[in-house]
Design goal:
The complex is a heterodimer of chains A (375) and B (165). With 375 residues, chain A is an all-alpha fold. Helix content of chain A is 66%, strand content 0%. In chain A, 45% of the residues are buried. In chain B, strands 2-3-5 form a three-stranded antiparallel β-sheet. A two-stranded antiparallel ribbon of chain B has the order 1-4. In chain B, a hairpin with a 4-residue loop joins strand 2 and strand 3. The longest helix of chain B has 15 residues. The radius of gyration of chain B is 24 Å and the shape is elongated. Classes of the chains: A mainly alpha (375), B alpha+beta (165). The interface between A and B is medium-sized, with 20 and 17 residues.
Chain lengths: 375, 165
């Protein structure tokens, strides 16, 4: 297992193992591995429920409400249905790559959660390069997606996979630059330390960074309005056109596991992670993840899908310069010490800067399709 | 300077979706909840009145699809026709309503029933006994305003939106 290798090599970096943990390292490892897998699977089910019911209500429908009370068992019914389906492999497919692709795509989505704190110090591995690890590991999913597109020997699959690779390469840059702003303020790359450093949620200090990260994150995990890679009106279902049964279920799981992962990263970096009054920390964490995911569903329902050239233009002409400017402003504020001394003034200034920058940039430098609706 | 292009348009869209989230959904859960259909409903089931029918065959002649088949025998003693066979293939019916309008003796009506799905094509052919009026198969008010008065008024899905959640 990749997780085992990573633990073995990364052993020297452990910081936050509870000292009175019975059995020490291996119990910690076993417990949190089980917790992470259970967390991801249950959250995916909950998140699918929120997405389908919430999206249904926003579209004046009810959403699935037949299976179980309030349709709560719909993800279970979907899983059973999809697992019982025939596993079809195209005759011309590259069998090994076709078979391996869902696994390669799924493992990194799960591994992201190794460094996400559920409570103070309650995480699988408190790496001191936590956020760098996330950035590195989350891109590996793309390899799985590209393997799926290549191995299917289907032109639509390949098109979808190529689009995905192009989007991930482009959006990784504003994504990372938005993270750097947070890291500058927190002074640490460790996810746990970032949360500890948040006396007020960083969304207040980094509103522009939050917007950039949200947009780039949505694009990174192929969520609408950036779901070009599986645009069903253009290319049948993108990279998973030729997948069915268990392997399709894996891709479906990856899609939502990544959405949960991005929500978890956003809430760790910008919304104060597990911090919150009254309720236990893990509950705060789950509530915040759900809220961020709801915002994703909200934007998905509202905005129409953009074109591939608009996708690229949005990354390079809008998000990228904005991320650079955001990084510059943040660095200036951190160096001058304003963020600690004049914190509340800086919050107002940063929100004003965000509004001003978005307005100016979209007025004079970049508009999606140059403001033409009909193209 | 129009602000629609600079994020205000997106904000407006977001408020629209959130308003829909808080509103009653515009749907009807069909098998449990039913809407009343129009009182002058033209379905493809017909209701035949055995007493009023004289077996003249006007309905069969006027049917553009030839879906109505009527076979009569002559009752010499009573000096009238006996309807031996009266069959309509509802699979061919185009719901034009000409047979109902043509009947000179007000013996043929549309049915107010809209659940006409069958499993076999043969089951779509309805004979004399199936076409009689029963409490389940009410007479539609099409072409007969006095019959329409007795039926419940039509309910619309639009009325649901104004309801509270």
């Amino acid at each position: 297992m990749m997780i085992v290798d990573f633990i073995a090599t990364g052993q020297g970096h452990f910081q936050a193992i509870p000292p009175d943990w019975p059995g020490g390292f291996w119990w910690h490892w076993l417990f949190f591995t089980v917790v992470v897998i259970g967390f991801v699977l249950t959250m995916v089910m909950g998140v699918i429920y929120i997405e389908r019911r919430g999206m249904g209500r926003m579209q004046s429908r009810l959403g699935p409400n037949r299976t179980g009370p309030f349709g709560l068992l719909q993800p279970v019914a979907d899983a059973v249905k999809v697992l019982l389906k025939e596993n079809i492999v195209p005759a011309a497919a590259d069998k090994l790559v076709h078979w391996l692709a869902p696994v390669v795509a799924f493992a990194p989505a799960l591994m992201i959660f190794a460094v996400i704190p559920f409570s103070n110090g309650a995480l699988l591995a408190d790496l001191n390069i936590g956020i760098l690890y996330i950035v590195a590991i989350s891109s590996v999913s793309t390899v799985g997606v590209f393997m799926a597109g290549w191995g299917s020997s289907n032109k639509y699959s390949l098109l979808g996979a190529m689009r995905n690779v192009a989007a991930v390469v482009s959006y990784e840059i504003p994504l990372v630059l938005a993270i750097v702003g947070v890291v500058l303020i927190a002074g640490s790359l460790s996810m746990n330390q970032i949360v500890v450093a948040q006396n007020i949620p960083f969304i207040l200090l980094q509103p522009l960074g939050f917007l950039l990260f949200f947009a780039a994150g949505c694009a990174e995990i192929n969520r609408s309005p950036f779901d070009l890679m599986e645009a069903d009106s253009e290319i049948v279902a993108g990279f998973h056109t030729e997948y069915s049964g268990m392997k399709f279920a894996m891709f479906y799981l990856v899609e939502y596991a990544e959405a949960v992962a991005i929500s978890a990263i956003i809430c760790t970096l910008f919304l104060g992670g597990w911090k919150g009054p009254l309720l236990p920390p893990w509950l705060w964490f789950i509530i915040k993840v759900m809220l961020v995911f709801f915002a994703m569903v909200w934007t998905r329902t509202t905005l129409p899908r953009i074109r591939i050239d608009q996708l690229m233009a949005f990354a390079w002409k809008f998000l990228f310069p904005m991320a650079i400017i955001n990084l510059f402003i943040t660095a200036l504020q951190v160096l001058a010490g304003w963020l600690t001394q004049l914190m509340w003034a800086m919050i107002i200034v940063n929100f004003a800067v965000t509004a001003f920058m978005v307005l100016i940039w979209s007025r004079f430098f970049f508009r999606l399709g140059w403001g033409r609706i009909e193209v | 300077m129009k602000f629609e292009r600079y994020g205000i348009g997106i904000a407006k869209g977001l408020t629209v979706t959130i308003r829909h989230l808080l509103r009653h959904p515009t749907v009807n859960q069909y098998p449990e909840q039913r809407l009343n259909i129009s009182r002058r409903f033209r379905g493809n089931e017909l209701i035949w009145n055995r007493e009023k029918c004289t077996g003249c065959g006007t309905c069969a002649k006027t049917c553009p699809q030839g879906a109505i088949e009527i076979v009569t025998a002559t009752d010499m003693a009573e000096n009238k026709y006996i309807v031996d066979k009266y069959e309509i293939d509802t699979g061919y019916c185009i719901q034009c309503g000409l047979c109902v309008e043509a009947c000179p003796y007000e013996a043929l009506y549309f049915s107010h029933n809209f659940e006409c799905a069958r499993y076999r094509r043969g089951e779509l052919v309805q004979g004399k006994e199936e076409m009689l009026e029963t409490p389940q198969r009410k007479v539609s008010g099409y072409f007969y305003p006095d019959k329409a008065q007795k039926l419940p008024g039509q309910t619309l899905l639009v009325e649901k939106i104004t309801e509270k959640r």
